[in-house]
Amino acid sequence: MKNNKKTVLSGIQPSGELCIANYIGAMKNWIKIQEDYNSIFLIVDLHSITVSQVPSELRKRCYSYLCQYLAVGIDPEKSIIAIQSHIPEHLELMWILNTITPLGDLSRMTQFKDKTKKNKENINSGLFTYPVLMASDILLYNADLVPVGADQKQHLELTRNLAEKFNNKFSPTFSIPDPLIPERGSRIMSLQDPNSKMSKSDANLNNLISLLDDPDLIVRKIKRAVTDSKSEINYTNSKGLANLIDIYSSFSEKSIDEIEQFYIGKQYSDFKSDLGQIIIESLKPIQKKYSQIIKDKTYLDTILKNNSSKASQIARKTISKVYRKVGLVSKARLIY
Ligand code: ATP
Ligand code: LTN
Asked: Lower CB count within 10 Å: N or C terminus of the chain?
């Protein structure tokens, strides 16, 4: 990628069905900026195995994610879409970064604390060092911008600290990446429990709307979403209603004010029924494109092959530089 454009990078772990929170919080921004940046969008499969997986489902899900990345509008000619495990340099850089990561920083990570609470039977060290792998994903490609939801802010701060630490300890090597977090919709909440965030790996599927949910299911889930017993559609009424208005605003591109004005004198049921339709209409083209390409394994494999070789070229350069800077003997000099 030899041009003057900056680099944007993001990733999602294939740990459940992609949901509207992932779309609103992260993917929507990916599509907006892919024209202006060198873009890399990863399916971070190595991250996803920090919680228990069913191997055959994980493999299938990676293809499904690839299709959904394409279906939401990522253009594989303009952006690199790759599976993290296809580029082993991610793990090589992770080891180097591990050696400069303070244990205390990792134990403060909110996602680690949340996930250990949920996975008491499988608190593994991968879950603990997870943010170092994420830092490697980002720094390997010298990303300048990382579009993510608000929950990833802390991981981004660690990444920036590690980049600065490495640059100071050795010599300037990594760009210092900035997060790109949407002003509204950066933390979409669960439909049944508006105090916790919507998560694609939630066991209760009524808490989330998946990008591939059919229209009837979407209508039902929105109808059942927890709100309150007030009568006016007002953002300040309750967390549940505010969350639905945020979702409405993100899909319709209307401001909160416009939405509140429009529903003056109308019922919650009117609002919910419109919201269901807005989501259905927004997801329709995505679902259509998805069903057109999901069966074309040859097409999908070609994308993976071409894109991961582009990613590997960048990754190899970074890792050689990093190995040299930390004092490892170059293998290249042995070839004569
Ligand atoms: P899991 O349940 O497996 O942890 P998740 O739904 O939390 O999954 P991630 O793979 O951790 O999703 O994150 C993918 C992207 O979606 C990240 O950029 C993350 O910040 C964003 N994201 C996740 N949940 C939300 C949310 N509730 N609101 C907005 N953005 C979100
Ligand atoms: N940690 C992130 C997923 C993730 C990521 C990344 C996001 C892994 N590597 C690189 C942005 C850039 C999460 O749990 N959502």
From this structure: C
